[in-house]
Design goal:
about 700 residues; Dna Ligase, domain 1; globular; 18 helices; 6-stranded mixed β-sheet; 9-stranded mixed β-sheet; Rossmann fold
Length: about 700
């Protein structure tokens, strides 16, 4: 089967073509087109087919990681959105909870109040009310009121409508009927209900997630539809699948209805790709380190599996989010991050980025601000004549000019300023890693750092040294590892149902949990069957969100397949106490425990991506392209060293190479400092042994 993975980044769009039978890979990068990302996607696919020597109609699947939804939220550039909700609850989206982003600041920004997803004038209320715990109807739905609200919102020009009623996770009938009425009155509107987006308790988070789905819905639907049309017009018959934030792909149809699934789509693919690369060398305890043009994303892989973010940690642009999502954390630190002196006189790097346009000054696109990429050029770490495999040349003089401007402002030399930029951005990234390891009770020294993205292999050894991480893994095609993750994952869907099952009635909890989980699994099996998956190619995982009664948040506990009995429930509750002790350092013996939500994750197994074909290489002498002066910080200060430059594809396998060294390939550049060493292994990775800080 022939697969194409396409990941859209802030600066470049990365592509890979994989022949699953032979493992043959062809990679390609094209500049991202911010005005219309589908333009770069289509052009890149057509160019990739030519490079790979394959007919475009022979491609079976296109798997796509998109930033359309994420950018719409980050830039607050979504649709004019309306809301229909219960009488008396018009302002749930505004009030939120008692928590604030900063507990003690009186001048803080509260995202859902300062930049609401739905303006108050577009929030309509109707009579109708359900009551817990069974979802009994207290007040019938006012269908005439819903019709009136739909007409008012149409007259106000809204493009999307979110329907959110209290306790709809217990019975979605009112929301479904309201949806039918809205579409009768306003057929062309994008309409979504909280019961289909996030059918679980916590009304503020559920309402916000649904409003977010509506806010980004029209833009994502237009983008996906336009991309499908363009692919078909250009002779591509491949099925289009979109990466979700849960670590799996979904059909274009599903994503068009639930675009909120695609938030952090690209970073999720990066973690999958990083885990795949680590497995090639037998490593399963990994910190994935994805540095692109505008941001750095990190994820944690333990025992070969990645963690899903908890409800208390899941948000984007400050808005709480309740959808399944890989635990990913991002910082505004990338190759395009701008170095500057702030209003207080402090030397800073990021979070502002030069992006794809104008980009770093060295890119010859009109950039006038000093960036991380410009600093790497000035320090000799990037080859101006061999960037992107020679497809792009860098302007060294322009990079020196913008660094000199900042140097004059700081009172430093050119090299001190450039090295200072890298030290600051690396420290920012190391602090991000600490927040997800040290602050969570994990020792980063027990992990390997998988460095990818266009900038990851350049910055990785310095970041690893700051953290005491002993090994850096550079994947076979680091610049397109996120695209590799797209072709290394499965179709994946998730369902969640709020249950509230107590340990005080283990027998009753077992019966209810079994019935609910079986019904959820049957629903997901039908969905995968509709997507063309045979029963033998599907798999299911069950879990529950568990807490002590009275706690505010839950821990995720695995639930075995098959019918549950009291013994299985007792084992589940015991597993929870173990997780609770690991997370919080204590347990509460005798306190009742409850399962708040039941979850089922379904996977439709895609073709297995095997080991890539690894070039055997020759001798170190044959791989040597020449030498270049490169500046490093050593114990004696800054030192410029005559540094060998090697072509990665020609490196001999298994031979240890001492630093300093620069390893070039089409999609990135890897760096070894004087105290580091490296081996190119049979799995296709570069394994860098990290020396000390000096």
């Amino acid at each position: 089967m022939r697969l194409i993975g396409v990941d859209v980044g802030g600066t470049f769009t990365d592509l890979v073509c994989v022949e699953t039978r032979t493992g043959a890979l062809t990679i390609h990068k094209v500049p991202t087109t911010p005005h219309d990302p589908s333009e770069a996607v289509l052009n890149g696919i057509l160019e990739l087919c030519e490079l790979a020597g394959v007919a475009r109609e022979s491609v079976d699947r296109v798997l796509h990681g998109t930033t359309t939804a994420t950018n719409a939220i980050l830039e607050h550039d979504g649709a004019l959105t309306g809301l229909i909700t219960n009488e008396g609850f018009r302002d749930i989206l505004h009030i939120g909870r008692h928590q604030r982003p900063q507990h003690y600041s009186i001048r803080q920004e509260v995202p859902w109040q300062d930049r609401p997803l739905v303006k108050r004038r577009h929030r309509k209320v109707v009579a109708g009310r359900l009551a817990p715990p069974e979802g009994r109807v207290l007040v019938p739905l006012d269908e005439a009121g819903v019709r009136r609200a739909a007409r008012e919102l149409r007259a106000e020009g809204v493009e999307a409508i979110a329907i959110c009623f209290l306790f709809s996770y217990l019975d979605p009938a009112h929301e479904r009927r309201a949806r039918e009425i809205v579409l009768e009155e306003y057929p062309e509107v994008f309409v979504t209900t909280s019961a289909e987006v996030s059918p679980q308790f916590r009304e503020f988070e559920r309402f916000t997630t649904t409003a977010m789905n509506a806010f980004i819905g029209p833009k994502v639907r237009r983008y996906v539809s336009r991309l499908e049309e363009r692919l078909a017009e250009n002779g591509l018959k491949a099925d289009l699948h979109i990466m979700g934030s849960n670590g799996g792909v979904a059909t274009a149809r599903m994503v068009s209805a639930l675009p909120v699934m695609t938030l952090l789509s690209g970073p999720a693919a990066g973690i999958i790709g990083g885990a795949w690369a680590g497995a090639l060398s037998g490593r399963d305890s990994l910190i994935t380190f994805d540095v692109g043009g505008t941001s750095a994303d990190i994820g944690i892989v333990r025992d070969g599996a990645f963690a899903e973010a908890s409800a208390r940690d899941t948000s984007i642009a400050g808005f709480p989010l309740m959808v399944p999502m890989i635990d990913i954390h991002t910082i505004g630190a990338g190759g395009g991050s701008i170095a500057h002196v702030d209003a207080g006189g402090a030397f800073r790097v990021g979070p502002r980025s030069a992006g794809a346009v104008p980009g770093p000054a060295a890119y010859r696109r009109g950039g006038t601000k000093p960036t991380v990429t410009d600093a790497n050029v000035v320090l000799g770490r990037l080859d101006a004549g061999n960037f992107l495999g020679g497809a792009m040349s860098l302007d060294v003089a322009a990079a020196e000019r913008v660094i000199d401007g900042l140097a004059a402002e700081l009172g430093l030399s050119r090299l001190e300023t450039a090295e200072g930029i890298l030290t600051l951005v690396n420290a920012n990234m190391a602090n991000l890693v600490r927040s997800r390891t040290v602050q969570k009770g994990l020792d980063p020294r027990n992990f390997a750092l998988v460095a990818f993205g266009g900038g990851g292999p350049l910055q990785a050894v310095d970041v690893a040294a700051m953290l005491g991480i002993p090994e850096v893994i550079v994947p076979p095609a680091p610049g397109i590892t996120s695209a590799m993750g797209l072709v290394a994952t499965d179709m994946k869907y998730d369902l969640v149902r709020t249950a509230f099952l107590s340990s005080l009635d283990a027998e009753g909890a077992a019966a209810r949990a079994t019935a609910t989980l079986d019904a959820m699994q049957a629903e997901l099996a039908a969905r995968l069957a509709a997507d063309g998956f045979a029963e033998a190619d599907t798999g299911f995982e069950r879990s529950g969100d568990v807490r002590y009664v009275g706690q505010g948040y839950e821990l995720r506990v695995a639930i075995p397949a098959g019918p549950l009995d009291t013994a299985a429930m007792d084992a589940l509750f015991e597993a929870f106490t173990g997780l609770h002790h690991a997370e919080y350092g204590r347990i509460n013996p005798g306190n009742p425990i409850e399962i708040v939500n039941l979850r089922v994750s379904a996977a439709g197994r895609m073709p297995v991506l095997g080991r890539p074909a690894v070039e055997q290489g020759g001798s170190l002498k044959a791989a040597l392209l020449g030498h270049r002066p490169c500046t490093f910080r050593t114990g004696a200060g800054l030192e410029t060293v005559d540094t060998p430059v090697y072509l990665r594809g020609s490196l001999p396998l298994g031979e240890r190479i001492a630093g300093p060294a620069i390893i070039v390939q089409k999609d990135t550049t890897s760096l070894l400092r004087p105290q580091d060493s490296m081996v190119a292994d049979q799995g296709g990775n570069l394994l860098i042994q990290v020396g000390g800080k000096d």
